[in-house]
Amino acid sequence: MTHSFLLEIGLEELPAKVIVPAVTHLKDKVAAHFKENQLGFESIEMFSTPRRLAVKVTGLEERQSDKTETVKGPAKRIALDDEGNWSKAAIGFTRGQQASVEDIVFKEIKGEEYVFVEKHIKGLTAKDVISQLSSVLPTIPFPVSMKWGNHSYKYIRPVHWLTALLDDQLVDLTLFDVTSGRASRGHRFLGEAVTLTQADDYKKALKEQSVIVDRSERQQLIIKQIEDICQANGWKSPLGNTSLLEEVTDLVEYPTAFYGSFEESYLIVPESVLETAMADHQRYFPVRKDNAENDFLPYFIAVRNGNDVSIDQVRKGNEKVLSARLSDAAFFYKEDQKQSIDEFVDKLSSVSFHEKLGSLYDKQTRLTAIANLLAPFFEVDEQQLDKIERAGMICKFDLVTQTVNEFTSLQGDIAGIFASERGEDQVIADALSEQYLPKSMEGALPQSTLGALLSLADKLDSLLSFFSVGLIPSGSNDPFALRRQAMGIVRIIKSFNVSIPFNELLDSIIETVDSVETKAAYIQNKDAVISFIKDRVDQWLSAEAGMTRDYDTRKAVLESDQDDIVEQIEAAHVLKAKKEAADFKAIVESLTRVSNLAEKASDDFTLSSDRFETDSEKTLYEAVLKAEQLTQTTLTASEKWQLFADMHPLIDDFFEHNMVMTDDSAVKENRLALLTRIHALSASFARFNVLVIK
After folding, report:
1. Does residue 187 register a pLDDT over 90?
2. Which one, of 19, 586, 5, lies nearest residue 251 by Cα?
3. Is 156 within 8 Å of 146 (Cβ atoms)?
4. Sign of CA dihedral 604, 606, 612, 616
5. Where would I find the H helices in 48-201?
6. How many Cβ atoms are within 10 Å of 455's Cβ, its own excluded?
7. CB-side exposure of 324: number of CA atoms within 13 Å?
8. Predicted structure pTM score
9. Closest to 673 measured CA to CA, from 583, 588, 602, 574
10. Nearest partner of 446 among 365, 391, 401, 500, judged by Cα
11. Rounded to whole angstroms, how far apart are CA atoms 251 and 272?
């Protein structure tokens, strides 16, 4: 016989963004508890609203299986005295295992006999196992937690009730100072408290109290209501904004969608501002006409947490709130129209980027210089160079506009819009709108070359600047989002497939610095910046390239002498693909042996073909010369691997016929110098001696 178990934690309103992760953690914690206690079940359903996190376990076994454990005790020589009687150690051991000395058997382990008894353990009931969840519930991780009252404990929000039922039986649980019961609570305004008689009654009983606890069902209801409104009015569905849909789903317990309107005069405001005012600030869905142009319309769709009673009053209230927001937006936009881009740029000198790093104008100047240094790697022609200069030297102007001051998330977007309105080249306007991309670890990337140049230059300047003044991320502390910016560098370079030698690039950037003190700080932190970017390459390879378990491959590539991100990534892919090849182990072993011996060489060892004593030395030397010539050309990672694969039998033949560490110092140094040349070739691809081979 199996059972159903319901667990609900009732809280004050939760932030929408934490609900799904929190209920998922609750589900995982409960599942892990049952698994750890060897109590089987069929499935776990998750339920959530802004006021509750809940799970229902179905097919839960009635009890644990009984089991027998064989427990080891003291050695026989300790368990028996000289007269063959049981010692206190043996008697104490059996008593501790709820057994007697008659249950003792002897078993030999490594030549010595030990006392053993069989311990029969009766399985706990499901109710007993569930009652142990009281220690699990406080351990759910949250991004932030709070205290309330005079209590010392912390949780995402104050806990108001706890419901725990095994079929129709109440299970005693506690969470902080709250004891479990049968009661749950309905909608804050439309429902009442409800007493549950059965765990399986949960969804139905809460729905009768105007709470749809099934998140998927609640979301589908929102989707249908919005689509019905759009279909009735000939509007295009706004549900492409999935992040807003997800958020709204977690803001309501009983959704009712409705639409409202605003004055057409506000349509003069850029659409991105209107969308931000509606979607980001008010959680409304902006509306467009269902035609080829997708014309923006003076309407919005909102979702009420409640039914349709007095919906007209609700509509008017929402319209009033939005009208005030749009009135502000229109005012700021009109005020900004009175100034030119150059007038905005003039203000940047008086606005601090950071107290240790100068003004926003200084920031623009630095990133423009970096963008010009990046241009050759992107094969930018002469005509585009002027555009780089103009785009770089105006790119931060929107940060001093009133529109961005009110709608901070639109920085960059407003720069592009205002630049286009003021007659700037559209290539420059597009680049300005892309300069902050990606705005998150997985966010959209720049699509234009000039946009990519601006974004890379901005991010590289931020890394070098903040590192130079000691503001380096540590632990989870990253107030200037430098990890996100470094990941953006990796993703943009990978997206545009552009090869950039970072050591060379950073050296060039350092040369553009006038201040002796700043230049010294840049030089001191250069390696740390490169290492920081490599950490993001490692993260990208793990998360995006399917190499989570290929730690040795990632390490081998990132510890190489290669500082080109594209080539690092390509090398990692080749090594991963070649791991199953029949000759992979032999090639890696050969190159590892070379590297280990090369470490014993001195920098002043010189290689001379006149000192070769065997044909294998000469043959290997000729192969090295050929490989060195080929690596001066453009080779793919696969072609580089093939060089090492072709050289591998020659290396083995060399070791077969030559003693490297011979007593003749001249010969030894010559052979070590040859191996050093091979090591230099392999180390530019990967550190083969860190690869794990079986």
Report:
1. yes
2. 19
3. yes
4. positive
5. 76-79, 88-96, 126-131
6. 28
7. 7
8. 0.82
9. 602
10. 391
11. 23
Domains and CATH numbers, the chain: 2-63+126-207 (3.30.70), 69-119 (no CATH), 215-324 (no CATH), 342-557 (no CATH), 581-690 (1.10.730)
What is the token pair recorded at 209?
């109290």
Determine the pLDDT at residue 68.
Answer: 74
Q: Is the C-alpha dihedral spanning 435, 441, 443, 449 positive or negative? A: positive
The amino acid at 160: H
3-state secondary structure 221-241: HHHHHHHHHHHHHCEECCCCC
Per residue in 589-623, pLDDT (tens digit) is: 999 999 989 888 787 788 888 888 888 889 998 99
Per-residue pLDDT band for 570 (boundaries 50, 70, 90) equals very high
Which tokens belong to 254?
């009983």
DSSP structure class, residue 348? G
User: In angstroms, rounded to a whole number, what is the distance separating the alpha carbons of residues 600 and 190?
Assistant: 80
| Whether pLDDT at 121 is above 80 | no
- Indicate whether 104 pLDDT > 80: yes
Check if the beta carbon of residue 248 is closer than 8 Å to that of residue 219: no
The confidence score (pLDDT) of residue 225 equals: 98
CB 38 within 8 A of CB 234: no
* 625: amino acid identity, one letter: L
Residue 620, token pair as written in the block: 């290997």
Q: Please state, in angstroms and rounded to a whole number, the distance separating the CA atoms of residues 642 and 256.
A: 64
Cβ atoms 689, 622 nearer than 8 A: no
390 phi, psi to nearest 5 deg: -65, -45
Distances in Å between the Cα of 297 and the Cα atoms of 287, 314, 319 are 6, 20, 14
Residues 6+ apart with CB under 8 A from 654: 616, 617, 620
Residue count (the chain): 694
> Whose CA is closest to 278, among 269, 331, 620?
269
Question: Tens digit of pLDDT for each residue in 373-405?
Answer: 999 999 988 778 889 999 999 999 999 999 999
